[in-house]
Specification:
Rossmann fold; Dna Ligase, domain 1; 30 strands; about 700 residues; alpha/beta; 4 domains; homodimer
Chain lengths: ~700, ~700
């Protein structure tokens, strides 16, 4: 897939120039100097020969059809060049030229035109407005970058070409940062992250996929594709971009809780993507995946010639939820036998400041052979007697025989550098700060958990979609988008949610009649399509124990509602069964994320919702495992397991509610916001009851 | 202060050796090669001349009394050498030799002996078991390190000498990492962090104090000294060390909530110390403080030649609670006038990929002159046309005229390096990752907040200490350490806390009598010194509305208590006023931290305590501002300000309770644990009532 881009038979450079300094010159020079083995065709109507190659006035004149064309001409000529490529039968085009969506409204139209042409001729397009693409194995450098990065196993894509120039510059100096692919996506008019992920999933030259992303317009597709690809190799993403969440109109609890960042976190988790917080973390972690075997567990051994750095690495392991390996007694004894008395044979192993390479070799051999060790960090501080190069060699040689990952933490600069080079030759990444090696191991542990995650078990319940459609039609017929409580009840019932017994009463006398049939005590709630937060207007009365109380409450509630919201249409009051209050109040909600679609929320409910914001999210649809995980992700999770003698909550009822809501918001994309708050969950076996539910439809 | 160490008239090296490779040789060589201008006296009974210097058999033989002696002889000779120094009148000794507290029990005794001798002769000691000390201005390098770090304004102390060797190695390669002092503290037998902080507080050569710390045994002293010094210059600390918090016996809520990390966080906050999470952060931030002026606000401008890195820096600023500066309209217009159309004149200013140094200069000049800008980050990606060195020069020159800090983010490696060197010559630190520049600005903002913090206003209430003493005596007289509820009431009253009316009833009939006098409804609680968590044994009954209910509840509670805790001494039941339940349940507690002493906790109370762990901490004594800040530090802080139509809580009552508890645990260091849970706080003006209180005394 996309082989026409990365392994083309031949390349045409449309806009190849003979003037050094021009982009068209740099791109051609890069293609040639990268050692590309196919035919290279400079296209330039004003030259017959460029850089010792025969130049052609147009692609129509080429003696063969190249798989790939690179366009580096002014934007107004791009559509025409695309058409010529199409006529010639070229199937892959990289548009480096800028002046499209990123520039102006006319540019946006021009970009749409390019896409039209591409569709017509069945051309795939990378760009426009990009740096170009590199494949270090083909080899092919079709960019205007200042050089080709070293060969390696990292496949990198980026929405920012400038960022790539900086990374290229790093890679040229670093010894352990090599790339298989290096792609600038530009405006992503056609080829996007998902296309490259699929293309690289089975590429043996790429061990890890890296992406710098500013936005994911095709959110649901992204989740689907990434989930599939992340089973095969790790995907590390740096997502940047501050969103103006304030600009979205938000009226529900859920909406105000779910910022765009929460959506990205949930979506990336579901997609099996490792999200990093900074450029440094992105590349630090990538280097660990590039050539080291994966961790099989989370138990790490540390070997060090100084106490302090060993503690720093231990701290970071602990902060990341990793474990310091506990060695077998026999391992400890053997380490003791091989080290001076003052050394530490327990983890972290301190081989002491005067350790030569032999002590490191002995310690690593023993530690790596211990069945309780899943990975090793070798810390080397440059002390007076330290043999930097020999130690790196000893570690490197040994690591070749191991199926456990080994990371280096040779600290310092001048003296460490020599060791870093040696380690790199064995595929061992080095970290100048031992904390970063620990963090890289944590990323590896995270990836292994992702890879081994079962496929989400998508559950479908038998529901009554027609009933819901009917309610929505009625609501819309009245020109409304917000769905009142009485209407919400019908929807909840159709999707199998449990509700308290409830009936609408238009008058106080009707309310008494209903209460008599439900049984006392009851709750009265204002029924109005125009009042969303009932308690705010004194629209709720609980614990009404007899007919007289119900009568008084009805009058009071209606009076208050009219006073606070003078224009409200008031239907009367809902008379509800007073459900037991010995449950835990939680919230289940949904808001619509512009990139990922329906985002379902679970968290602590009641008045604590806004104070604590103790919530977690999933993009719908999601599986049973996700629903179960959500219960454990809130900070108050132990409350659901039972604390201080309280019985555990009915978790199954919560899981089912989450899944039913996930199904509802997937079935009805017109629902833009939804809250059940509170959902009262009782002890195991007693289920959960939705006490209040509201929905807002797309306007 | 400590001038004898850093600016000595002369130095004796006891154990100076003529064999290269020996520590005594390296130390002597370093002293000489560092350019020390005073007399240097090698002490070695077996040599008459070392390194062209006359050697002396003993310090007694010296022609003058040097201020400083450095001891590098085997540990068993150290006490004797100390004595000789004392007799000669030497007042400052650095003991490099190892084999003391860190090695064995005998070593510990030897260390105590050294301290005895030091006290007798009034000698200050750095070490033992350390790398030595460096002052780059004197200049003096009295260490066995492989070189002297570049001169600069960072004063660094470390408990790990090996870590310093790595940092030294870095500093030799980096252009913007220079030190004024470089001290290895070793075992801290005498001179500790606090001594150096005081000594460096007024040192004009040191702009920022850095410390790598593994433990702070003198916690209260540390807070006092650091608070004082941090008004004069920033103190940045990396604290490492995983504590076995599980090993501490903990029986209260508070105790289990307050790990040692919480104590460090609270103490460092109160001390005005900036705590960093990693070595890299420590030095990244130190470089910003080293030569740049301080921020006057938190509004940052970014100038960049690429969008992506600008977004990354913006993200980090936002994550750190900093603000992107909003320029004046006139500034935006002027930037627009000076830049191409496609550039962005709003923050972040994008000078575009083809920007030469003039565009950076123009943008920086305008942006820095804007009154809404407090600091500037200049991001430079190495694109084809980028003028790295010229741009660095332009930024550097301009920055000299500014009283606002400027940080560089020249990205990449090979090409960036030249720019880095130029920036360094102007005192501008460079960050390879723009996120780190943003983080450094956040640290600066944090420091300015610390510096401007008012001194804590220590409040003392009029209390009845004698009443408390009496209770404690009674408790101890019974061989107990845990204080029951009835006894706790007396203590709470003595310290002015409000309690519900309550009386002990030994029989059911007495209980009815008490209830009659308090008024119904009442609460009954088991009264037993052996039952701490009353609800766990069914020992609490609420809402008892009449005499018959009280009688039944009494019998049931006592029966249950006897069944669950067969050996418990049961005094009867407390009959309590049923206080209104419309308040918010919070917790105030205290546990004893081994390093910092009484650690007071505030947080959400009731059953949520353990589920949410929503708590915050202060080391007592603390001032009114701290108590007020605690209310805002819990996640549920908005609950106290009133949410969803609920009235705000009586914050003043909470503040006063915290201050009174802070006073109590300071007055009575024998209190090792204390809980008030719940403390029910009502709306403003209605105060707070301690519903349940318990204490544990030191055993």
């Amino acid at each position: 897939m996309l082989d026409a881009f990365f392994k083309p038979n031949a390349v045409a450079i449309i806009g190849a120039s003979q003037s050094p300094g021009k982009l068209g010159y740099t791109v051609l020079a890069n293609v040639i100097e990268s050692g590309f083995r196919g035919n290279i065709y400079p296209i330039n109507p004003k030259a017959s020969q460029i850089y010792n190659l025969k130049a052609y006035p147009a692609v129509a004149d080429l003696p063969e059809t190249p798989d790939l064309a690179v366009i580096v001409i002014p934007y107004n000529h791009v559509p025409n060049a695309m058409r010529e490529c199409g006529e010639k039968g070229i199937k892959a085009v990289v548009v480096i030229s800028a002046g499209f969506r990123e520039a102006s409204v006319e540019g946006m139209e021009r970009e749409l035109e390019v896409i039209e042409i591409a569709k017509k001729y069945d051309i795939r397009v990378i760009g426009p407005n990009c740096l170009g693409i590199i494949d270090t194995y083909t080899p092919l450098n079709a960019t205007f970058a200042a050089g080709t990065p070293p060969q390696g196993t990292i496949a990198f894509m980026s929405q920012s070409g400038a960022l790539q120039t900086a990374i290229l510059d790093w890679s040229l100096a670093a010894r352990d940062l090599g790339f298989s692919k290096f792609v600038s996506l530009g405006n992503k008019a056609d080829v996007a992250e998902t296309d490259l992920m699929l293309a690289w999933a089975d590429d043996p030259e790429s061990h890890v996929i890296l992406a710098y992303v500013e936005g994911v317009p095709n959110g649901q597709e992204f989740i689907k594709v990434a989930r599939q690809v992340s089973r095969k190799k790790p995907i590390l993403v740096l997502k940047s971009g501050v969103t103006e969440s304030g600009s979205r109109a938000v009226s529900s609890h859920t909406g105000s809780l779910a910022g765009s960042e929460a959506a990205y976190d949930a979506a990336f988790y579901q997609a099996g993507v490792l999200r990093l917080d900074s450029l440094q973390e992105l590349f630090d972690n990538a280097r660990a995946f590039a050539n080291q075997p994966l961790l099989k567990g989370d138990r790490i051994a540390i070997i060090t010639n100084a106490g302090g750095p060993g503690i720093l690495a231990t701290d970071m392991l602990e902060r990341q939820g990793m474990r310091l390996a506990r060695f077998e007694n026999s391992t400890i004894q053997q380490i003791k036998d091989g080290l001076p008395d003052a050394a530490s044979a327990v983890n972290p192993v301190d081989v002491l400041g005067d350790a030569l390479s032999d002590r490191y070799a002995a310690a690593l051999e023993l530690v790596a052979a211990d069945p309780n060790v899943d990975g090793v960090i070798c810390i080397v501080t440059p002390q007076a007697m330290t043999e930097i190069v020999e130690t790196a060699n000893a570690i490197g040689k040994l690591s070749q025989r191991l199926d456990k990952p080994v990371l280096g933490a040779f600290m310092g600069e001048e003296r460490a550098k020599a060791g870093e080079d040696v380690l790199a030759s064995y595929g061992i990444p080095n970290y100048k700060f031992p904390e970063h090696a620990a963090r890289a191991f944590a990323a590896m542990r995270d990836y292994v958990e992702i890879r081994d995650r079962p496929d989400p078990e998508m559950v479908r319940f038998d529901v009554d979609q027609d009933a819901v459609k009917k309610v929505f039609e009625d609501v819309r017929a009245e020109g409304r988008v917000s769905v009142g409580e009485a209407e919400s009840r019908a929807i909840a019932k159709a999707y199998g949610l449990r509700l308290p017994q409830s009936e609408l009463a238009a008058t106080a006398e009707e309310a008494v009649k209903v209460a008599d049939s439900i049984g006392y005590p009851v709750v009265l709630k204002i029924a109005s399509p125009d009042i969303l937060h009932k308690t705010d207007v004194g629209g709720v009365k609980v614990g009404l124990g007899n007919a007289s109380d119900v009568r008084d409450a009805f009058d009071l509630i209606v009076y208050r509602a009219q006073r606070y919201v003078p224009d409200a249409r008031i239907w009367g009051c809902l008379v509800q069964e007073m459900v037991p209050t010995d449950g835990i109040e939680v919230l289940v909600g949904m808001s619509k994320d512009p990139q990922f679609g329906p985002l379902v929320t679970f968290g602590l409910g009641g008045i604590l919702v806004e104070a604590l914001k103790d919530v977690t999210f999933r993009v719908a649809p999601f599986g049973r495992e996700d629903a179960e995980a959500m219960l454990d992700e809130i900070r108050a999770h132990s409350l659901l397991r039972g604390v201080r003698g309280r019985p555990p909550a009915d978790r199954e009822a919560l899981v089912e509610t989450l899944l039913r809501i996930g199904q509802m918001v997937t079935d009805f994309p017109e629902i833009v916001e939804m809250d059940i708050n509170p959902l009262m969950v009782y002890e195991q076996g007693r289920g959960a009851v939705a006490l209040d539910m509201r929905l807002v439809l797309k306007s």
